[in-house]
Amino acid sequence: xxxxxxxxxxxxxxxxxxxxxxxxxxxxxxxxxxxxxxxxxxxxxxxxxxxxxxxxxxxxxxxxxxxxxxxxxxxxxxxxxxxxxxxxxxxxxxxxxxxxxxxxxxxxxxxxxxxxxxxxxxxxxxxxxxxxxxxxxxxxxxxxxxxxxxxxxxxxxxxxxxxxxxxxxxxxxxxxxxxxxxxxxxxxxxxxxxxxxxxxxxxxxxxxxxxxxxxxxxxxxxxxxxxxxxxxxxxxxxxxxxxxxxxxxxxxxxxxxxxxxxxxxxxxxxxxxxxxxxxxxxxxxxxxxxxxxxxxx
Length: 297
Ligand SMILES: Nc1nc2c(ncn2[C@@H]2O[C@H](COP(=O)(O)OP(=O)(O)O)[C@@H](O)[C@H]2O)c(=O)[nH]1
Ligand SMILES: [Mg+2]
Known about the structure:
This protein is of the alpha/beta class. The protein has 2 domains: about 5-80; about 95-280, P-loop containing nucleotide triphosphate hydrolases (Rossmann fold, 3-Layer(aba) Sandwich), CATH 3.40.50.300.
């Protein structure tokens, strides 16, 4: 695990080549921008990063590849947003888990449940992905393995009603975290957004804002398409934090940088495998190093 972000402080090939060119030479900024875009960073942000270098009085005075590397690294670091979304106290809380099909919503719910059970919390599931028959079953299997309660009404049920039931129950018991699954697709996008907004209204009518978190799951391997996904869900509901799943395979953090910078949504966790233990709070240092590695080649 975490092979990709072994502390790589030594400047890689690209940074060395750029340093040899010199920060004010023909081609320097172009080569840098190309490498940033290659690393899944949105073109406008790649330009922003190179502009920062261009406009900095320090850039012309860089005396080693190491200095150039740490300069680029600092600019990128400042653009990355992270947040801690672990429950802070023993109050009731609901986490609505959002994202398109196949990104890892259900798996991430099981991982978060394990994490919070280990921290001594009481956790239950609401099977809000009622669009696909297999989705409820998949969540029920995880609930069985974890030994936790699942609120479910089967395929085709109203997800708002399923989640409402779960909320009533944790409220009655006075303590607990409800992790609510959602469908990642409907017959069309506007239908999905309407469905999610209905769920959101139902939750808001039952709980106060601080105990309600909307978590979006983004697959690290999706590339630039992940930005559009984040935009849709953020516009529909507002997202408190993102889980970057599948960060174990071909991991390139450029997507996280693009989403942080363009939408202002922070990253909360990274999923690093299919096991229950394969989730951890997003480590901004590791993310920046993975972006630097991708840029440097
Ligand atoms: N390698 C890897 N696979 C993951 C990760 N998270 C989820 N998966 C896999 O991605 C697939 C889809 O996950 P699922 O939770 O069903 O996605 P959902 O449709 O969003 O609920 C499954 O095969 C999971 O095992 C991760 O962090 N790393
Ligand atoms: Mg699912």
